[in-house]
Design a protein that fits this description.
Elements lengths: L1 E6 L5 E6 L4 E6 L4 E2 L5 E3 L4 E7 L4 E6 L4 E6 L15 E6 L4 E6 L5 E6 L10 E6 L5 E6 L4 E7 L6 E6 L4 E6 L4 E7 L4 E6 L12 E5 L4 E3 L1
């Protein structure tokens, strides 16, 4: 049951989230073939999404059924081959109920996890803030809706995390210097999709948020 694929920015590896088997398939994108040394990496139950820390070469998966995230060493050597530690699951960390997406802050400090909660029972979701150094949950930020998408933009000294839900018309904005909700912005209809253009340290350009609502309007800000 493959549900999501992620390619690294250097286009050398692609990772496929297999929700049914609780594994990540590794594809060598340069060869268009399964990575024979690490064909599948076992993570928590029900991986559905992944994000990547470019500098540290770490892949972070959202394990929906396992209520956890897994952090995988995805480092390559200077020649684009798997490093000696490639494929190692560095940590699997319990978070909130049904993590559906993750966003890695690209200063390497934290991972923000959108926990969907339980829509059927009306249990609202939350955002777990995970320390990417010691692999612990620093904070849990409660939400009033069930999130389905999250994105982070890093711009020293203050980054922003955007969270949206299909059963709410509000965009939630979290400041990364305080890890508190700084604003909620009402959109024209419930947001069904959202992406951010990644912001890395040293870049001078502003990050952009692209969203799509039920009325199919698209905007940025």
């Amino acid at each position: 049951c493959p549900v999501y694929g992620f390619m690294t920015q250097d286009a050398q590896r692609t990772f496929i989230m297999n929700c049914g088997s609780g594994t990540v398939t590794v594809i060598n994108s340069q060869l268009n073939a399964i990575d024979t040394a690490h064909p599948a990496i076992t993570v928590g139950a029900g991986p559905v999404y992944a994000d990547y820390y470019r500098v540290g070469q770490l892949l972070v998966t959202a394990n929906y059924d396992g209520n956890s995230i897994s952090i995988i060493d995805a480092s390559l050597d200077a020649y684009g081959n798997d490093s000696a530690t490639f494929g190692t699951v560095v940590a699997t960390i319990p978070v909130g109920l049904h993590p559906v997406e993750v966003a890695v802050l690209q200063d390497g400090s934290r991972v923000y996890v959108a926990n969907q909660g339980d829509i059927a029972s009306g249990t609202p979701g939350s955002v777990s803030v995970v320390n990417l150094t010691n692999y612990t949950v620093e904070k849990t930020i409660p939400l009033s809706a069930n999130p389905h998408a999250i994105g982070a933009i890093y711009n020293y000294p203050i980054g922003k995390v955007y969270v949206v839900s299909q059963n709410s018309s509000f965009l939630t904005i979290i400041r990364t210097d305080t890890d508190i909700i700084s604003n909620t912005v009402e959109m024209e209809g419930n947001i069904v999709e959202m992406h951010v253009n990644a912001q890395y340290p040293g870049q001078s350009t502003q990050g952009a948020l692209n969203y799509q609502t039920e009325s199919r309007s698209v905007g940025s800000g």
